[in-house]
């Protein structure tokens, strides 16, 4: 998959929504893209774990953790499951942990920051609901493209 978000903006500006949130890259893949699945949760990664343990088929999981950095919503074990299940990437509006190990995985990972504290595992939250952060509304079924310049979202696959 060869693309640059800046080039996508130049070619498809009217179709793209550009996320203003300044995420940090934590995964082994600097650039990643795919159709979106969403999770909304707060300091509980039970649903994140559940979803990333299903076939990813090249998709990107977008997690709205309400911007909380109080506990991590994903660490190396859940990210490892994402790799094994064929996910392209994970974007977390919140924190991750095990950042040294995340860099070694063939997975795109963007998050606000890191915290070694684990989250609750009760599975509280919502699946496949629209989420919004950085001035962008993201829904399951959208297409997300991420690289070092940032994140853009479209309603269709712009690379096929």
Automatic annotation (TrEMBL):
Top-rank taxon, per record: Bacteria
Cited CDD domains: RraA_family
Keyword terms: Lyase, Magnesium, Metal-binding
Biological role: Catalyzes the aldol cleavage of 4-hydroxy-4-methyl-2-oxoglutarate (HMG) into 2 molecules of pyruvate. Also contains a secondary oxaloacetate (OAA) decarboxylase activity due to the common pyruvate enolate transition state formed following C-C bond cleavage in the retro-aldol and decarboxylation reactions.
Amino acids binding Mg(2+): 98
Binding site for substrate: 75-78, 97
Cofactor or coenzyme needed: Mg(2+); a divalent metal cation
GO biological process: regulation of RNA metabolic process
One Gene Ontology MF term: oxaloacetate decarboxylase activity
EC number in record: 4.1.1.112, 4.1.3.17
Family as reported in the entry's similarity comment: Belongs to the class II aldolase/RraA-like family.
NCBIfam families, per the entry: NOT-MenG, PRK09372.1, PRK12487.1
Source organism per UniProt: Actinomadura harenae
Enzyme class name: lyase
Protein name: 4-hydroxy-4-methyl-2-oxoglutarate aldolase
Reaction equations catalysed: oxaloacetate + H(+) = pyruvate + CO2; 4-hydroxy-4-methyl-2-oxoglutarate = 2 pyruvate
Pfam families: RraA-like (PF03737)
Oligomeric and partner information: Homotrimer.
């Amino acid at each position: 998959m060869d693309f640059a978000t800046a080039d996508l903006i130049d070619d498809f500006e009217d179709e793209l929504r550009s996320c203003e949130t300044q995420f940090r890259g934590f995964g082994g893949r600097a650039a990643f893209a795919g159709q979106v699945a969403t999770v909304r949760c707060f300091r509980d990664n039970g649903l994140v774990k559940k979803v990333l343990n299903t076939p990813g088929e090249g998709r990107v999981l977008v997690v709205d953790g309400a911007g909380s950095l109080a506990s991590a919503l994903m660490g190396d074990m859940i990210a490892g499951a994402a790799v094994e299940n064929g996910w392209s990437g994970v974007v977390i509006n919140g924190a991750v942990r095990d950042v040294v190990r995340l860099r070694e995985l063939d997975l795109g990972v963007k998050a606000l920051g890191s915290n070694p504290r684990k989250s609750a595992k009760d599975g509280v939250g919502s699946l496949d609901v629209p989420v919004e952060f950085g001035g962008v509304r993201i829904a399951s079924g959208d297409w997300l493209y991420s690289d070092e310049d940032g994140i853009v979202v479209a309603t269709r696959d712009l690379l096929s």
